[in-house]
């Protein structure tokens, strides 16, 4: 990755001495060394004396009626300690995020391929798997509903019906028309989170009849509450301890591991461990919503948008999960970061017998970004304008209205971002016909010829909301304690690879001037902090840590200020030293503490939001963030192979809190977006997941990762956010697939209306 050292770009700010600290510094993660050396303890590494091993039996059918389950043979196998089915769930038989519509174990009906039927605990992992395979299940196979368009008229697949949510958005005059009208049909495939480490966990029964769950959770309190309800226990008798999370982008937000593990531990009275195979991981967690989008854009002769009409259909799979939230984002952002006076959208999320869909970074926003940017390219072609110029004439700014009627009150430097990527130098073309200067599409040993390669440049603008939406109670609690020269942070915010623990250390270092800061592991004995999703923890948990640290700062400085007859505001802390405004007072934090222990607990709760009404109107979002990407691709127009040469990124970040982390998060997000653009598509014909492994589901590797050039980071602080910072991880994921598609369109002249881009979509047939 290259980083441009220019106005607003990432720059390294290193402190004097051995270790940088504080806001604005590239503070390294305390976990980095252990993770690179392979010594960091993940959930799959857990161990307990006398543990048993769990295995789960899953349905081979996407839709079937269960007529009989016989566990006798499995239970009689030597070494098997327990076999559980739906009849053995003592509490709530259903669970789910937001909507409790998913059974712990299917009892009468199977609704998707891989749905859990039973769980086994045995003294050896092979015994557990053999016992699960020995469970006899008789099915009456039913015709699956796999086309979301047919779900409206199909027989109900669930007692709650097939329609999960319908959002109509009405903004402006329905009779408005433009001089230029373009239409498009777009499809976005099923992306898997594909975590580095598959799901794993350990359940340990407690003497009081409760249970402790050691899992890679991203929302321990929600997991505790769901699990306790299924166990038939009070929440205080279930403890969730967060173990090492090997990456998380939505796949950790379900109870597919916690509940069966806890039930087996409670039944056997022994610790029980589960480590999913890669196939089980693909079948067990939620994926990005496959989406069908129909668009009609109206513009005037000058290229200014007049009206956007859209129909958006999200395939939720078998259960609701986060589909309502994803649909709200898709409908609200259906016109993109553009000023459009008239917007009319119909959005639906429906159940099918396809694999479940749920929260995956940028859900809803990514799908519509691919569609509205395809429409902008069509308009540019019709109007004879440069794609960047057309976008520039329509960009959103602070003070403009979203189609939901909400005023954009946060910084929205969309035009500045677009100008930055537009004006950045393009990567040079290879000189001459020397094949050694070309890295051909298709890889290092690509079969193409340089003469068949066409270069394309494309642009995309993306936006997402940060924090939860539509009335979600976003709150986090943190405690900061200082004693013997060390500060300790207690906060249940989960470090899922997004860098929260590093940020928490930086905040305390900045506010209190204490370099030695430790962040305790997360568990449910701590107050709730909410899920590690939707870029929440930079804002709400970082805000809680900042407030608690400032309260401790006041406790530290107040006696000193009173002694010298001045206010606390006249004292500053920097590099471990306390000084007064006039320089008369100068001492150290350590001397002022003098062995005292100071602590404070604080909450951060952003302003409330509204649920979208019957016309899709309402102040549904706390904050917004924006991104511009320029993609440069080489396309072999004979083979349809695509190589991403470079992605230039300009992003709205509020304030850079950790330069290296910001750069790393943007690079990671862009690379995930490239995977969505070119290769990641979890196929499930007739509801059966095909090749659920990392061979059948290709991911971008180091050889596929493009050169990511951060050309500008706009640091216009959001006054509502702690330190003015905005989250950086999700919006490049949303924007980069649309930019790659735009670049392939530019190179080939083909419409490119499907993600991921199939080779046949990039082949240009010679004229006959």
Overall helicity: 10-25%
Structural class: alpha+beta
Distance between the termini: 43 Å
Mean pLDDT: 91
Task: Kindly state the number of beta strands.
Answer: 30
Q: Can you list the strand order of the major beta sheet? A: 4-8-2-15-12-13-14
How many helices? The count is: 15
For the biggest sheet, the summary is:
7 strands, mixed
Which residues sit in consecutive blocks of at least 5 with pLDDT less than 50? 1-8, 11-18
Q: What share of the residues does DSSP label as strand, in percent?
A: 25-35%
Q: What characteristic shape results from the CA principal axes? A: globular
Task: Please compute the radius of gyration using only Cα atoms.
Answer: 27 Å
Summarize the structure.
The chain has 768 residues and is an alpha+beta fold.
Features:
disordered N terminus, globular, seven-stranded mixed beta sheet, AldOxase/xan_DH_Mopterin-bd_sf, 15 helices, 768 residues, AldOxase/xan_DH_MoCoBD2, AldOxase/xan_DH_MoCoBD1, alpha+beta, six-stranded mixed beta sheet
């Amino acid at each position: 990755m290259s980083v441009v050292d220019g106005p607003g770009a990432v720059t390294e700010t290193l402190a004097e001495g051995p270790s940088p600290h504080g806001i604005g510094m590239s503070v390294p993660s305390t976990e980095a060394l252990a993770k690179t050396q392979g010594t960091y303890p993940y959930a799959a590494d857990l161990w307990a004396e006398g543990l048993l091993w769990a295995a789960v039996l899953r349905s081979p059918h996407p839709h079937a009626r269960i007529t009989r389950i016989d566990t006798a043979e499995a239970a009689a196998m030597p070494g098997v300690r327990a076999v559980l089915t739906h009849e053995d769930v003592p509490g709530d038989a259903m669970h789910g995020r937001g909507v409790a519509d998913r059974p712990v174990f299917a009892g009468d009906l199977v609704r998707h391929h891989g749905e859990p039927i039973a769980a086994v605990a045995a003294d050896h992992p092979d015994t557990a798997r053999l016992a699960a395979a020995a469970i006899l299940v008789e099915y009456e196979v039913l015709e699956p509903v796999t086309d979301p368009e047919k779900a409206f008229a199909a027989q109900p697949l669930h007692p709650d019906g097939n329609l999960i949510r319908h959002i109509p958005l009405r903004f402006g005059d329905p009779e408005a028309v433009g001089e230029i009208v373009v239409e498009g049909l777009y499809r976005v495939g099923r992306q898997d989170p594909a975590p580095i480490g598959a799901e794993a966990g350990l359940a340990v029964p407690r003497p009081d009849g409760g249970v402790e769950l050691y899992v890679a959770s991203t929302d321990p309190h929600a997991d505790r509450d769901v699990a306790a309800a299924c166990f038939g226990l009070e929440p205080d008798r279930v403890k969730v301890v967060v173990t090492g999370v090997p990456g998380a982008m939505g796949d950790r937000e379900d109870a597919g591991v916690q509940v069966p593990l806890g039930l087996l531990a409670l039944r056997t009275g022994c610790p029980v461990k589960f480590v999913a195979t890669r196939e089980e991981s693909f079948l067990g967690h939620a994926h990005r919503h496959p989406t069908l989008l129909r668009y009609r854009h109206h513009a005037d002769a000058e290229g200014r948008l007049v009206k956007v009409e859209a129909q958006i259909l999200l395939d939720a799979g078998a259960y609701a999960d986060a589909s309502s939230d994803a649909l709200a984002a898709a409908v609200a952002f259906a016109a993109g970061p553009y000023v459009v006076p008239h917007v009319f959208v119909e959005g639906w999320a429906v159940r099918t017998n396809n694999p479940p869909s749920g929260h995956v970074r940028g859900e809803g926003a990514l799908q519509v970004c691919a569609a509205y940017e395809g429409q902008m390219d069509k308009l540019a072609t019709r109007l004879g304008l440069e794609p960047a110029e057309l976008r520039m004439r329509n960009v959103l700014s602070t003070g403009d209205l979203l189609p939901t009627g909400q005023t954009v009150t946060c910084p929205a430097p969309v035009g500045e971002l677009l100008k930055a990527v537009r004006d950045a130098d393009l990567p040079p073309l290879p000189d001459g016909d020397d094949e050694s200067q070309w890295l051909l599409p298709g890889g290092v040993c690509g079969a193409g010829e340089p003469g068949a390669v066409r270069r394309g440049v494309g642009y995309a603008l993306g936006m997402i909301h940060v924090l939860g939406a539509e009335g979600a109670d976003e709150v986090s609690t943190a405690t900061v304690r200082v004693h013997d020269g060390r500060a300790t942070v207690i906060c249940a915010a989960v470090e899922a690879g997004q860098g929260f623990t590093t940020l928490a250390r930086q905040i305390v270092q900045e506010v209190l001037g204490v370099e030695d800061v430790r962040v305790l592991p997360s568990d449910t004995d701590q107050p709730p902090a909410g899920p590690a999703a939707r870029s929440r923890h930079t804002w709400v948990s970082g805000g809680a840590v900042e407030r608690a640290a400032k309260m401790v700062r006041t406790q530290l400085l107040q006696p000193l200020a009173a002694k010298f007859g001045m206010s606390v505001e006249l004292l500053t802390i920097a590099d471990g030293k306390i000084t007064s405004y006039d320089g008369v007072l100068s001492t150290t934090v350590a001397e002022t503490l003098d062995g005292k222990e100071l602590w404070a607990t604080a909450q951060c709760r952003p302003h409330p939001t509204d649920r979208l009404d019957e016309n899709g109107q309402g102040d549904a979002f706390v904050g917004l963030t924006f991104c511009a990407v320029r993609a440069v691709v080489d396309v072999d127009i004979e083979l349809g192979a695509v190589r991403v040469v470079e992605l230039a990124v300009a992003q709205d970040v509020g304030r850079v809190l950790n330069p290296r982390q910001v750069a790393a998060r943007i690079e990671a997000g862009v690379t995930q977006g490239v995977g969505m653009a070119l290769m990641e598509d979890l196929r499930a014909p007739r509801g059966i997941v095909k090749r659920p492994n990392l061979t059948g589901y290709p991911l971008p590797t180091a050889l596929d990762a493009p050169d990511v050039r951060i050309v500008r980071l706009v640091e216009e602080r959001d006054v509502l956010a702690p330190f003015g910072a905005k989250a950086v991880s999700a919006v490049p994921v949303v924007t980069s697939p649309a930019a790659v598609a735009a670049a392939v369109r530019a190179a080939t002249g083909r419409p490119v209306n499907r993600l991921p881009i199939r080779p046949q979509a990039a082949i240009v047939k010679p004229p006959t």
